[in-house]
Amino acid sequence: MTAYADLKTRFARIAALGEASGMLHWDAAAMMPPGGAAARGEQLATLAGLGHDLLTAPEVAGQLGEAEATGASDIANLALMRRAHLRATALPTALVEAMTRANAACETVWREARAASDFARVQPALIEVVRLQREAAAALSDATGLAPFDALMDGFQPGILAADVEPVFAAYEVFLADALPRAEAIQAARPAPIPPQGPFAIAAQRALCRSLAARAGLDFDHARLDESTHPFCGGTPTDVRITTRYREDDFAQSLLGVLHETGHALYERGLPAHLARQPVGEAAGMATHESQSLIVEMQACRSDSFLRFLGPLLHETFGGDSAPYAPENLARLWRRVSRGFIRVDADELTYPAHVILRFRLERALIAGDLAVADLPGAWNEAIHAMLGITPPDDARGCLQDIHWYDGAFGYFPSYTLGAMAAAQLMRAARNASPTLDRSLAQGDMAPLIGWLRGNIHSQGSRFGFQDLLRNATGKPLDPADYTAHLTERYLTA
Amino acid sequence: MTAYADLKTRFARIAALGEASGMLHWDAAAMMPPGGAAARGEQLATLAGLGHDLLTAPEVAGQLGEAEATGASDIANLALMRRAHLRATALPTALVEAMTRANAACETVWREARAASDFARVQPALIEVVRLQREAAAALSDATGLAPFDALMDGFQPGILAADVEPVFAAYEVFLADALPRAEAIQAARPAPIPPQGPFAIAAQRALCRSLAARAGLDFDHARLDESTHPFCGGTPTDVRITTRYREDDFAQSLLGVLHETGHALYERGLPAHLARQPVGEAAGMATHESQSLIVEMQACRSDSFLRFLGPLLHETFGGDSAPYAPENLARLWRRVSRGFIRVDADELTYPAHVILRFRLERALIAGDLAVADLPGAWNEAIHAMLGITPPDDARGCLQDIHWYDGAFGYFPSYTLGAMAAAQLMRAARNASPTLDRSLAQGDMAPLIGWLRGNIHSQGSRFGFQDLLRNATGKPLDPADYTAHLTERYLTA
């Protein structure tokens, strides 16, 4: 066997271990009785350790040096193997283990601290997490030649660095300062939305979510929809597991959540099957993944076109007064702009503000320019500067998200890059398929999903974020498509 | 670290891989959409391969030679490590892979062959399976010093060989020849059982099964009850997964099935937690495992005592006429003796006949004394000799069980050894706790389960099958306790 063939076998085993872990994570969230948690931790740690051992085994460096690949796909695959090996070997085992322990310990304390809105309680644990992240960033920086924070960002969305994000975010801040009051004024001049009256039977919600996910193209011979406290998309490309949670008094949260996760799931389902379990066959980073969930949830399903289809279906499903289900009312209800404290509840217009402030704070924490102790104050200043509001407590401020407390620094930009990419892809899809909105108005997502399958899903990781966009839309990330989308949706009286 | 400490770490990783596989097997049976099957195969093969690599790594032989253990538990643990290593290294990797492929291929064809009752269709695949099993038996024989078929049996119930089983089975055959017609005559003289009239709502059956499993001691903080085509007990000791299947026209199948699986589950739950993921902390073989399911299902739950509790509960659950739920009627219904073709439907009296004939045939196949082509004829002769019936087709004959077609030779004796051990343990438990039947009549299984926990569950694999029985009952396996149980239950007018 050639060195490259050996490496392909090795990476397929690593990927199979990752798939097994993915399933066990899903099970832990959706199925596992509480008493299984400790053993599950052992199982996952063992699988992660064995995967790391396979990736960093002594013979791999030589094989990677020796390996030769021909053809674009294999050349990209080999480059991704080298990248994975470089990042995995950059961190000493002792540091990886210390991070695993510190992150797990901090996350546990964070749950209590958030519940009590008591930042001081988690401060020592977060100081340790940040200290280790800075060590890791330095080690990754040495290995990759990237700046330390860039080296962390690169772990979530390969190739996207702080210098790419900074000007985009600065421009958005300017746009928002003007757009937000205008959107609010326009909104205030319109009739107030009428909320549908519950209760909404869970069984009906479940059937609705399932049928809309199927309508969007999710094939339940290769997917499941279950329940968990925190909705997510997990599993593997041929066996995707999405979750949601249901509330009797509100169907929108589960419905729109399922459509969001369906976007993620369709991406996984559309990855190139002939490249399964090879790095080049995987999804192309977190921002790309988020673009696929948001194009389904935000761009397609909250569009005027789709709401014309969805409104009558909802009324038929839940009965009662028809007024709340009028498409215009659903649009006012589900596209409501508000200056809120909580990122995950934010609208499309203000969401980037939440991301921008986190990006700046996490960067300052890793650079050592911001002490953990000063985080609550810096947070509150930042959100006040952008949205003019001050969190009444840290639970609604710097304690709200799990990311940092779980050791994820450099992830947040992916949300907004994904939202922007979704707008850009939607524009290109509309250009490619002039009847796309007519299809959406009939509840037919096939033209959109078909276009995404060809241009994004089936590409795997053959291209990075910018080249994927360039190939699909003719240009790299262009935030103007996002602001144009927002202008049309929120700033047009 | 000492060699023994290194080995403990290694075996804990191997066990964690096994736990992960167990969960993925459960998922495949109870949750997985059909499209996930191929990827699941890759995941399981990778985990099995990595586990095998860990067990057979070059340094292990040296560590096992060097390792020293003190204290009964560690001495037993080290011996079990040596045994596992010996068996794993005995088989060349190429043979293991060939068996895996041949078994999987044969099992697939067997499903069609059974459905069509067409032995010829699966004959070539079974010939290959048997050929490889004979190779494996020879290799294991060389390594262990056991006879070839004994080396296969030893893989399912360590320490129990054909010479242990043969006289037990021969004696049972003599007992049965006399007992069966007598039991039939006694049964014929009694009123015919009145079957409860359905339909029995699945939701009510589900709740009943759950509550009876909980009553038997299963803690659902550490367990789940789900559905699958073939009921089983899987998962891990702190997260046991049992399954059943429900039919609207019959509640007994799921109810008694769940009680059977609960017996398995309680054994796993009661294994010594401080020895988790070490060989000595595992269950002590398949016959021991079966004794724990059968003591709950057959000995306890079909006893006159427990039926006095269960009858009224069933009537309360399902309503309707009370006569079918009278304890005496349930006894006549659920302890009905009949000469049937199907092992899994057999009663306690005739079940061993099904096992005895399989044991003799599989032994002859492995010895080369019986050709695969002659299996259907040999089967039909054997069952006619013991039960006086002739299968109308091979689906009800030699095609009925998956075991051989999946490469499991030497497993069948465990069923009957387990049934016999269950009777012996029940007698000892009654002696130890004279109020045990009074408790059962109140639906209280705690005295029985508590006794099993102390004498069997908590012992892990510290002792083999015979020593476990000796410690718990004062003697090794004594089939007289089983025939005494059968005599009391079936031969007393």
In short:
Chain A is 65% helix and 3% strand.
Task: Write structural notes for this entry.
The structure is a homodimer of 493-residue chains. Chain A has 20 helices and three strands. With 493 residues, chain A is mainly alpha-helical. Chain A folds into two domains: 3-155, no CATH class; 156-493, Orthogonal Bundle (Neurolysin, domain 3). A three-stranded mixed β-sheet of chain A has the order 1-3-2. In chain A, strand 2 (233-236) and strand 3 (239-244) form a beta hairpin. The radius of gyration of chain A is 23 Å and the shape is globular. The mean pLDDT of chain A is 97.
Distance N to C terminus of chain A: 66 Å
Q: How does the major sheet of chain A shape up? A: 3 strands, mixed
**Poorly predicted ranges of chain A (pLDDT <50, ≥5 residues)?**
none
Percentage of β-strand residues of chain A: under 5%
The secondary-structure class of chain A comes to: mainly alpha
Which CATH class of the largest domain in chain A applies here? Mainly Alpha
Q: How large is the count of helical segments of chain A?
A: 20
Compute the gyration radius of chain A: what is it?
A: 23 Å
Q: Kindly state the number of beta strands of chain A.
A: 3
Helix percentage of chain A: 55-70%
Average pLDDT for all residues of chain A: 97
Number of domains of chain A: 2
CATH topology-level name of the largest domain in chain A = Neurolysin, domain 3
Strand order of the largest sheet of chain A: 1-3-2
Spatial shape of chain A? globular
